[in-house]
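Input/output pair, single chain:
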Amino acid sequence: MEASRAEPDRVDLHELAKGWKAAIARASDPATRLEAQVKNDRGNLPLHTAASFRAPLEVAEALLEAYPEAASITNNYGNLALHFTAWKKGPLDVEKLLLRIFPEGAARKNNHGNLPLHYAAHYNAPLEVVEALYRAYPEAAHQKNNDSNTPLDLAIADGASPNVVALLQGKTSPPSDDEVFEGAKSKCERMEKELQRGMESHDVIQEELESVLSLLMDIKEAHPHALFSAGVDPTTVTDMDSLLQQVRRAGEEDRGEAPPGGVEESQLGTTPLGAHGSLHDDDHEIQMIEDALVPPDDEVEGVLSKIIGLETVKNQIRGLRRTIELEKMDIERAGRTDAPLPRHMAFVGNPGTGKTFVADTILPLLFKIGAVSTPNIVTACRDDLVDRKSESRTVEKTRRVLEKASGGVLFVDEAYTLFPSTARPRGRDHGAAALREIASCMPSGSPLIVLAGYAEDLDRVLAANVVKNSVLLRVEFPDPSPSDIARMFLAKLGGKGLVPGDGLSVEYLSELLSSNTDEEWRFERNGRITDLLLNSVRNEIKRRVEGGVDTESRQSTLHFKALPSPVQEKVPMTAPEEVVVTVEDLERAMVNL
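Output:
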């Protein structure tokens, strides 16, 4: 009879371990505390379950007091409770408790060869969590799992903070904000001094140039035919500017840099690929066609045309614009004075799909299309809205942000972090108060609220009673295709001053991504692949250049066209160089991702 009652009780404690108070009471009751030693069908003890659901310190203490050996026992997959704490970003005090009771756990690998530090690095655990595991077992940073990945590899691949990466590399942490500020301030002061010296030098050169041009203008007036000997046609000279243009043209012809008839400066570098533009004629032609379709006087369409991919997102903005225009026409036609309904939005998408980038690009357009009355744009995250000390201070802090954005747009990034979490100390989690305050101003439409986050997490916010039915426009950000990633990468390449070499087109890079990476790997990173690939390409170029004279990737491009000083001899300026990224660079970079 007693055995028949015990089985449901054991199940209860596993379920209660996901909560708090009831689990503490049951683990402390002499009649039921033995259940802390019972495993479920996955080999999990109640301590494993509590760690998995980020239970607070009181629950872990009660379970360990009932069964101290639980800290050193693994489940069917070789995981300790410490693995779960690192994986689920559990409370730091629970992690420290587990390490204090069973310090060897930091060096214990599970069935997949993962140490707790692997999980902390892979799932972007806070620095304090990573640091506690690293201090307990420093060698873990270079221990490989069954996939031959170290925690350092996973931290770099999954975008961990610079502090975490520096810690796992055994380096000192990056400088604090104050140190960065002081360093930047000192650098700015040095640059200001250099700029001042440069401006003074420029003034001297400019004076010398004006003196020479004035002399040539006098010659043109008195003896115009004399200018032919210098390669200048006096009939084309009408003022100082036209004379300077003719002198530069003549100098180019003397150096063999331009065909007879000259090349206007505005034509130089019309292709972003410089001397290699012909290698990418198809891509360039497509871009020219797309640019030609954009109305030249439509600023909104001009901005949207610069966004790569995301056609559904751009179409929703176009649709919003048309709706506002029609509503304004209806209001004017009916002679009404009422304002249209506020159009609060939700930007929903996986990591790396471009939510923040699009917000920076598109939100200024909301004022231009009439969605808001002022160009105010305020971006806020949890730290900008929540005060850890009290709920009343959180309300005041949130109101100040709302007032700052009044009449414009408030963009709340990672809005789901305003929901309560067991990972935060009890009594200090006032995110719900900030969310209520934001929701209270939604009916007025001032400011217009844009919430951003991952689909699963943000859906919880949108389903909350305080926000429900207030967000009228849900903007879905799809995962970029290999072709989209290729176009983004080539755009970044040009923005960094690097030039695609022969054969490095959107089609080639798209096929390279498709054949060398799987869909799941791309899904986890999306747009961040471009940054990873760009860093890897830079390393390849650096390795190639340092290996010897790099004649393949460095080629002369635009020539310096300043008029030499007639008064004093100047050191000739070196022609700028462009760095070409070859197909081989990209293939090696892809291997090292």
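DSSP finds 25 helices and eight strands in the chain. The longest helix spans residues 177-222.
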